[in-house]
């Protein structure tokens, strides 16, 4: 028997209806009822799409007003105490306080009180952010199924089998955070399981047969206690006599695949795209009476599936004796756009190669029909056969398309000399030459690149894009912005200036738009967090740089000041990480191609007289594979790609890089291996803790630890910054320290930016006076 299903579906809506409904509700322009009505409509539409595509189940429980982990916090009744029940607040209001925070005026003591939101962090190695559950010894759980039951009742009106999707108890605990010293949230498991049990019982009452438990932590290097708990945990859940599909994805279950196959569940889902190597083992070890769900369609990327290859895996599963095979996307479709068909912006040759969520559902149906025919020793006939052939032709056409290939780029990469990723001299020599050239004071001050992206600037860009103003008028305005930014920085006395990035919409899109091998969609939105969506560029072919991308702007900005103005680029790893990239060659190859394009830009900037060039790599850390065993390989090519982009320059040209808040400690050698002359990092919120690692490691090059938090409009006090710089100087030699904010300032207003940077400069001057 063969069935199809999906682990989850994008909830933001084809035209981001949920985003707009949420934001209108948050502005107070629509009621909770309006918002609920939109949600109801969207869910019905998404379930209907699943039914129309022939899926055997519709999936319920994947919808969320903000984030699925946050939903589980309410479902399991473990909201942290600061979001306590207030009779005047609805559950949804409480939910939004938890996900977004709230400041309220307390009139009695005339103070603004803040209920800070839950922390947000990336969901495994995706660009989706989830709300982190908080645990203490006092945490208690209690089932609140109203919200889930409401959705089930809605789904039932469609008269189609339902599968409920929940986050598994161990993933829920593991992805949370203990907020109490010496307390391990794992100890809460015994209390948590009965509550999951109650939820199961409730689902049973509502006529549910199948529950999907997502346990993606099975793809991590799991601590022994979590691993050992799986059996006990699912044994306990099994008693409810609902059928359980255990879902793993994103990474191989290597090391514990056999244990996973033996768990007391009724079915197992594996990711055959990211963890193809698991399949033969699972075919061996999973008892044949259990359902095997094959994640054959890539839920993390946008390319059409080779259906023949998928069919082959299904056939193998039946040959291995599996009785019931389900076919699904590898993971939830949350991570891909709704639909590409009829997108007006994508390169028309590339468009047919793409599959969003809707197209992926259609692929499922084709695979199912073909597999059914195959089981009966037949082939597809009629309309289905035509569809199949068309689909496979498209897949083949992509594979052999000249559009993918640029012989020059391939040749250049193949012929790259081994020293192409090395600067002329080692850092100590470069440092000396750079000091002579730039003659900067102690604790040089700089910013990370962007200045406030005002409404004016955004309007200007969108008018230019729509063709309402011409290039000359556009450039006139932009150059005015740059002029003002330079004047401002000179006025307050920063040492190394930036042009402010007013001409850039987004740090990846800006470069992707100018590089060959990329295309962009009009509507390919993917949820990032809450109502925020991103539209990742689509990298389909060999990457080449037809002409300089930033040189004119950099030259102009530099002409306005005697002080160095940094050339500003995005690094190869970040461009790769934040795009949908081709799957027909290793990521490493794609990264190196991007690196060559950036390298040429770096060389051109130097040629144009730019002495300091910053290559941002905020996504360097997040590119790490989920399994430690694979880290080395990634770090090798990632640091090489960076060095290739950074190395064509003279010794006295200074290369900077920037990384946002990351866990740096376990990858310090790889950061040092990038060999940037200066790295600026986000540290202020960690109170310089993060910098200690760099100190202990004896990080060899110069560092600019962020001295104030740019995520808040609050203007720092001089003594706060002084204290942070002093703290930094305790762990890093003072002569290697730079002073800068945590990150770019594009989300800030000018008023607080001017004030904060002025304070930063005076704090630095105070310290220089003491030297
Ligand atoms: N140069 C970029 C900016 O300042 C860096 C942004 C980032 O680190 N994400 O906006
Ligand atoms: Zn940053």
TrEMBL record:
It holds the Pfam family Meth_synt_2. Gene3D superfamilies: 3.20.20.210. L-methionine binds at residues 448-450, 501, 616. Its EC number is 2.1.1.14. One of its GO terms (biological process) is methylation. Signal peptide: none annotated. CDD domains: CIMS_C_terminal_like, CIMS_N_terminal_like. Zn(2+) binds at residues 658, 660, 682, 743. SUPFAM superfamilies: UROD/MetE-like (SSF51726). Residues 4-315 form the Cobalamin-independent methionine synthase MetE N-terminal domain. L-homocysteine binds at residues 448-450, 501, 616. Residues 443-765 form the Cobalamin-independent methionine synthase MetE C-terminal/archaeal domain. The keyword Transferase applies. Keywords: Amino-acid biosynthesis, Metal-binding, Methionine biosynthesis, Methyltransferase, Repeat, Transferase, Zinc. 5-methyltetrahydropteroyltri-L-glutamate binds at residues 16-19, 122, 532-533, 578, 622. It catalyses: 5-methyltetrahydropteroyltri-L-glutamate + L-homocysteine = tetrahydropteroyltri-L-glutamate + L-methionine. InterPro entries: Cbl-indep_Met_Synth_N, Cobalamin-indep_Met_synthase, Met_Synth_C/arc, UROD/MetE-like_sf. GO terms for molecular function: 5-methyltetrahydropteroyltriglutamate-homocysteine S-methyltransferase activity. The active site is at 711 (proton donor). Pathway: Amino-acid biosynthesis; L-methionine biosynthesis via de novo pathway; L-methionine from L-homocysteine (MetE route): step 1/1. Belongs to the vitamin-B12 independent methionine synthase family. Catalyzes the transfer of a methyl group from 5-methyltetrahydrofolate to homocysteine resulting in methionine formation. This is 5-methyltetrahydropteroyltriglutamate--homocysteine methyltransferase. It comes from Limnobacter parvus. The gene is metE.
